[in-house]
Amino acid sequence: MDKDKIKMAINSLKGGGVGVIPTDTLYGLVARAEGKEAVAKVKKLKGRSQGKPFIILISSIRDIEKFGVKLSLADRGILAKLWPGPVSVAFNKRLSFRWPKNKFLVELIKKTGPLVAPSANPEGSPPATTLSEARNYFQNKVDFYLSNGKKLTGQPSTLIKLKNGKIEILRQGKYKIWKQ
């Protein structure tokens, strides 16, 4: 990817912008998770149902603490086995996190802070697998588009909940987890 375009995307996100980038699973519609107006714009662009939270991409387990989540020792042990990787963890009805394995994405998050990153498509439409599909959905309504030049046809992340040191599967996705 073009370094100047990456720098522009980082500055845009830091300034409250919204964009489309390749994630570790699919193209994502991204904004800084701590930017309320940018997150509201993502919800509007997605046509997201009220109360349906976004998964927040993080660059380390410490990022979770910024959102007031306290992890038990048992939860930390489970996460050490699953992260980084294509597993999202729901901690309550509002907060779900994923620490991706993709180096580009982790470096981007280190520079911008945690990102909301739902798939790049309006709710009810198929996820964009190419940048041109994302452009068809959002046209000039986002601040930037980044591409790795690839078609992304990955599955969504596996979504789990941790409960008393056990894993509860909420959505089976890319990473196969067997019930404990």
Q: What does this entry look like structurally?
A:
The protein is α/β, with parallel strands linked by helices and 180 residues long. It contains five helices and nine strands; from the N terminus they run αββαβαββαβαβββ. A hairpin with a 5-residue loop joins β4 and β5 (96-98). The longest helix has 12 residues, at 3-14.
Question: Secondary structure elements and their pairing?
Answer:
Elements: H1 3-14, E1 19-22, E2 27-32, H2 36-46, E3 55-57, H3 73-82, E4 87-90, E5 96-98, H4 103-112, E6 115-116, H5 131-138, E7 144-145, E8 158-163, E9 166-171
Parallel strand pairs: 1-7, 3-5, 4-8
Antiparallel strand pairs: 1-2, 2-6, 3-6, 4-5, 8-9
Structural key phrases:
single chain, 180 residues, alpha/beta, DHBP synthase, nine-stranded mixed β-sheet, 5 helices
Question: What portion of residues is helical?
Answer: 25-40%
Q: Kindly report the name of the CATH homologous superfamily.
A: DHBP synthase
Count of helical regions: 5
How does the helix and strand content classify structurally? alpha/beta
What percentage of amino acids are in beta strands? 15-25%
The CATH class turns out to be: Alpha Beta
Main sheet attributes: strand count, strand direction, barrel closure: 9 strands, mixed
Q: Kindly report the average pLDDT value.
A: 89
Instruction: Kindly identify the CATH topology.
Output: DHBP synthase
The shape, in one word, is: globular
Low-confidence regions: none
What's the CATH architecture?
Alpha-Beta Complex
